[in-house]
Amino acid sequence: GWALSDLLHHDILQQDFLDTYNNLTLKTLMGMEWVSKHCPNASYVMKADRDVFLNLGYLVQQFLIPPKKNFMTGYIYRNTGPLRNKGYKWYVPHEVYPNNTYPPYCGGPGYVLSGDLASKIYAVAQTLSIINMEDVFMGICLHALGISVTNSPWGVFNMYRIEYEKCRFSRLVMVHHYEPQQLLKLWPGFQEPKMTCHR
Fold first, then answer.
1. Which example biological process does GO assign this protein (predicted)?
2. Is 173 helix (H, G, I), strand (E, B) or coil?
């Protein structure tokens, strides 16, 4: 479990709040704070959920060279708005967020931002009303900073599961809904020398 991982790798961060869905935004901001304090010169930061296939090599080759500033990309949502019905998991009252639409934002399962944004997002978040959808809140922070998300090519960040196929996955950054056990099974084969893939 996570305790063993911490023992071996010293890679678990803890803070004083419950690890619940409603606290995802706090968890993400904790990450931004940690990056800005301990990795201030990082070129990029990747936020990914535990249930995603992530092709970091392709991400770096295609999108992150040369290093960029004020950069954030992923699967972009546009023209979405707050749910005002209290019965919804994602209910947001007017007093917390008054606008009818959210700024564009990157879907939560996986997005990448330039390292310089971590401290900017953390700082501006202190001035805003926090909402429990961390991906939306990151978009609100960017909007408050006057920074736009960067479009990614259609289909490289996948919010829905796609059946695994090595050639296809070699040209994707992220696929949602792959559990750790599934990833452990397919990853060794994915890492083997590339076979010839026809575009």
1. protein O-linked glycosylation
2. coil
Cis geometry, peptide bond prior to residue 193 (ω within 30 degrees of 0): no
Percent of the chain with pLDDT over 70: 95
Which residue range(s) make up the domain with 119?
20-191
CB atoms within 10 A of CB 43: 16
Q: Give the predicted TM-score (pTM) of the model.
A: 0.91
pLDDT band at 199 (very low <50, low <70, confident <90, very high): low
How far is the CA of 78 from the CAs of 69, 97, 98, 163, 180, in angstroms?
Answer: 22, 17, 17, 26, 30
56-62 long-range contacts (CB < 8 A, ≥24 apart) are 58/156, 58/170, 58/171, 58/172, 58/173, 59/112, 59/173, 59/174, 62/156, 62/173
